[in-house]
Structure formats: C-alpha cells, structure tokens
Amino acid sequence: MITATLIASYLSLFFGILGIIILFISGIKAFIQMIKLELFKDETINFDDLRVEFASKILFVLDFFIVADLIKTVFDPTMDQIITLGIIVAIRTVTSYSLNREINNTKK
C-alpha cells in the first residue's frame, strides 16, 4: 500500500537527486569554461560572468535541497527533524544571502 509518507519520501529523494544532478552538470560546465579560459586563453569567456553563472546555479540548487528537506520534515515531524531543518535552512539562508551579495557585487 502506498502511503503519503512513502510518496513524500520519494519526492524528497527526487528533489535531492535533481539538485545534485544540476549542481554536478553546472560544476562540470564551469570547470570546462575555466579550462578554456586559463589554458586556451579564450577571450569570449569572462571570469566574472562565469562566477555569476555558477553562483546562480548554486542558489538554484539550494532551493531544491530546501524543498527536499521540507517535504521530509512535513511528513516525519520529529523534534530532531525540525531542529535539523531549522539549522539547515539557517545555514542555507546565510549562504544564499552571501552568494546573492557576491553576484550583485560582481555584476556592478
């Protein structure tokens, strides 16, 4: 029998894996562009644009991870899960804020 908890578990796993895949692909893409920039002196690639693009992808992926944790916590609301979610959201919020400031400063 399929329960809401089981569906939530699969959804949480799905969003977590999706975030990892996006982060992996973005990291590989940024690495390749960095190699082109450093080794082949490709002048079509701007380092600041590369940083902004990769930081934006990291922020996007953080949202997937928060969604995965929220789904998991809503359907299994133990005090440990709630505390863990609160800590994770706080850390990710600070990270998101820092990355947003970095992106905005780089764009100027």
Profile the largest sheet: none
Are there runs of 5+ residues with pLDDT below 50, and where?
none
Number of beta strands: 0
What radius of gyration results from the CA coordinates?
A: 18 Å
Estimate the mean pLDDT confidence: 89
Q: What is the number of helical segments per DSSP (H or I, 4+ residues)?
A: 3
How would you characterize this protein structure?
The chain is mostly helical. 87% of the residues lie in helices and 0% in strands. It has 3 helices and no strands. It has helices spanning 4-39, 47-75, 79-107. The longest helix is centred in the first third of the chain and has 36 residues, at 4-39. The model has no long low-confidence stretch (mean pLDDT 89).
Task: Furnish the topology, listing elements before pairings.
Layout: H1 4-39, H2 47-75, H3 79-107
Task: Describe this protein with a few key phrases.
108 residues; mainly alpha; elongated
Quick recap of the structure?
The chain is mainly alpha-helical and 108 residues long. Helices cover 87% and strands 0% of the residues.
